[in-house]
Automatic annotation (TrEMBL):
InterPro entries: GrpE, GrpE_head. It comes from Amycolatopsis pretoriensis. One of its GO terms (molecular function) is adenyl-nucleotide exchange factor activity. GO terms for biological process: protein folding. Pfam families: GrpE (PF01025). Gene3D superfamilies: Head domain of nucleotide exchange factor GrpE. The keyword Chaperone applies. Transmembrane segments: none annotated. This is GrpE protein. Keywords: Chaperone.
């Protein structure tokens, strides 16, 4: 595997080389992780503004490929730790009380870390 210098020139080295200081490796990893987070945030920004279903689908597929999942919790029990209530829909069915009726704004999780809670509409028992 070829390694490259910061200026882009090939060092001709392999993963077994020991001439890279461990602190430099940490710095490079931290930079790569920060860059990943910035790209994820840019994709979420683009998703919020996308008007084409095809563009939304492609962005979500790309994010899913790196472990970022779209969260649309319709049919799940509302959980204030994972969902943000945006509204309520009255229901006569006691089984639906507290269930997410629809997702107003898609949420996202990076593996197990919540990036943005989905904003949802929740069924609520009608009051007499």
């Amino acid at each position: 595997m070829a390694w490259f210098r910061k200026d882009g020139t090939d060092r001709g080295s392999t993963a077994s080389d020991t001439d890279v200081h461990p602190l430099q490796q940490v710095t490079d990893l931290e930079r790569a992780l920060a860059d990943r987070q910035a790209l994820i945030q840019m994709c979420l920004y683009a998703l919020d503004r996308a008007r084409s279903g095809g563009v939304v689908e492609r962005l979500e597929e790309g994010l899913a490929a790196i472990g970022v999942q779209a969260l649309r919790p319709e049919g799940e029990r509302f959980d204030p730790a994972r969902h943000e209530a945006g509204g309520a829909v009255p229901t006569d069915d006691p089984a639906l009380d507290g269930i997410v009726a629809e997702t107003e704004v898609t949420g996202f999780a990076d593996h197990d870390r919540l990036l943005r809670a989905p904003i949802v509409t929740v069924y609520a028992k009608k009051t007499p």
